[in-house]
Each structure stands twice: as C-alpha cells, then as structure tokens.
What we know:
single chain
Amino acid sequence: MRVPGAREDGRYARQEALPGIGEAGQRKLAKARVLVAGCGALGSSAAELLARGGVGTIDLVDFDSVELTNLQRQALIGESDVGEPKARAVADALRRINSTIHVNAEIGRLDVGNVERLVMQADLVVDGFDNLASRYLLNDACVKHSVPWVFAAVAGTCGMTMPILPGQGPCLRCLFPTPAQEEKVLTAQNAGLINTIPRAITALQVTHAIRILLGAWADPVRLEILDVWDGCQFAEEVPRSSTCPACAEGRYDFLEATGA
C-alpha cells in the first residue's frame, strides 16, 4: 500500500481543480477519518464516493451479510459476494478502488458497546442505516462527543438528508424529537426501493460531508428531500430546538436507556 493521500498524477486532478477544494483541500481529505455506519444501499454508495474522493481513512461497521436481493441497489458488491459480511465485501472493493487509503471493517452491530469508541475516533460520521433506533443512538453519541454526522434515509422513490454539526446547528432530535413507531415508518422493506434514490441522496450526503471536512460549511442547516420518480426536490431550514433533550439539555436517552 502506498502512503495514504500520496499524490498520484491525475487521480484527483478534476477535484483539485475546484476552487472550493484545491490541493490544500485534497490534503485535508487525505488526513480525514470517516465512519460509515451501515454498509447497505446508502452506506456502500457513500463509501465509494468517499474512497474515490480521497478520504484517507474509512471505517465501516455493519453486522449483516450480502443477500441476492441486495444486488438490485447496493454499490460495490456482486454475485460472488452473496453470503459474505457486507462490511468485508465493501472494504475489499474500496481497497481495489483506491490503494492509497486505509479501510477498516468492523463486522457487528453498532450498539452501546462500540458506538462511542467508533464515533470518537472519527472526524465525521456518514449515516448508512435503515432503521430509526440506530440513528437515534448514533445521534446521541455524536452530539455527546461533538462529532459531525450526515443523516440520510430512503424508501420507495424518495430520500432525505441533513448535516448535523453539534454545537452549531440542529440534531436529529431537533428534527424528530420522538421516534415514530417502526411499523409506521416507510422503509425499503415495506415500501420498496428504486435503485436510483440511494445514489442520488448519497451524492448530496457526501457533498455535505466533504464540505464539513474541509471546514467549508457556513450555510443554514436544511433538510433536503428528493423524489426521483416525480422529479421533485425541496429543502427546508431546520432550527435548533431550545428544548432538545440531546443538544440543548445534554441528555442522551438512547445511550442511557440501554445501559451505556
């Protein structure tokens, strides 16, 4: 393996040509460490973009194994990966894409036993989950340790994303104070999923992640919602709640409720 972030003629030329990145920004990305929490449709697409963009260290965590039904929408995997742990399959693919970066795979659930450790060693976290419980747990850990993360969710033909910068803007509980009942939440399992929406949402999600890593985030925080089938997109500014249990009151219910 070459030195992480080592210059290679041409690899990042198009990215470095952007005024908002340049060679200095590319060096920042090479030094960054990002946790991708979940290696399904969202996480695998986000991980691929981060690796191709030159993020120096990518940590992956996922407990699941590749199934045939994943091949319709999940990036980086193929038929030969069926039965393999997703985190390992995605990690192997990332190393083939970019041998100059470090990729670490943790096969297991992100839970109270490891979430704070994984979050604390990251500069930023990318949400690749498919359930609410894990996102609220992640939000607690990130707010507690002041680590930015980028929320994303998809179902059917729709998706949404929002950057979360602890101490600067709203967190997940400012947006959704109380978790909805799981049976009332649209998911890929109960609503289906067109394979274009994870790619579209992670394009926005990873762009937000790169801007945060570069210290280039100065915009108001907005929830962005996209429907690729109807071609509709809108964004709404989300205020920080003065009564938020997590980011306003410093109460981490989802860490504490499970014994952390």
